[in-house]
Write a structure and sequence with these properties.
Blueprint (H helix, E strand, L loop, with lengths): L10 H23 L3 H4 L3 H22 L2 H22 L3 H20 L7 H16 L5 H9 L1
Helix pairs in contact: 1-3, 4-5, 5-6, 6-7
Length: 150
């Protein structure tokens, strides 16, 4: 069962510091942009501060909750990162699936089998290089494998 983050002695000092930094960031955006409020709300910098206003508290609560909650949050963030990279690098679906699965495997190994953590890159390399060979679709596989390894 996860811990109660609100009862942790460091939770409120950290939360207040993060809130202060977010407020300072908002004031910095207002000072830099120098636009009316209506235009300011659509600026990129304002949208980033607004995003962090949601992400930071979620991260802090998750971090102080610990246990399985942190694992789920890390898996979510890792899979979101893989999805973003897949879109940017135009990685095919089968390689994207392998990347997502290996993200979760990496988290599981980090949590339960730390002494095997250093074998993860080798295992991922072997899995990626075997995928085109086993599927018989080797045309353009060098690009997909190299993008996935990157």
């Amino acid at each position: 069962m996860p811990n109660d983050p609100l009862n942790h002695p460091l939770f409120w000092p950290v939360a207040l510091r993060i809130a202060g930094l977010l407020l300072l960031g908002l004031l910095g955006v207002i000072a830099v942009e120098r636009k009316p409020w209506k235009q300011l709300k659509t600026s990129t910098l304002f949208l980033r501060v607004k995003s962090w206003a949601f992400i930071a508290p979620l991260f802090i609560v998750t971090l102080f909750a610990g246990g399985f909650v942190v694992f789920l949050f890390a898996a979510f963030v890792g899979l979101q990162g893989v999805a973003e990279y897949v879109r940017l690098a135009s990685v095919e679906r089968r390689y994207a699936t392998l990347m997502g699965a290996w993200t979760v495997v990496g988290l599981l190994v980090a949590a339960f089998g730390r002494r095997y953590f250093l074998f993860l890159p080798l295992g991922f390399f072997m899995l990626l290089t075997m995928a085109p060979i086993l599927s018989g679709q080797v045309r353009g596989a060098h690009r997909q494998v190299s993008a996935s390894i990157f």
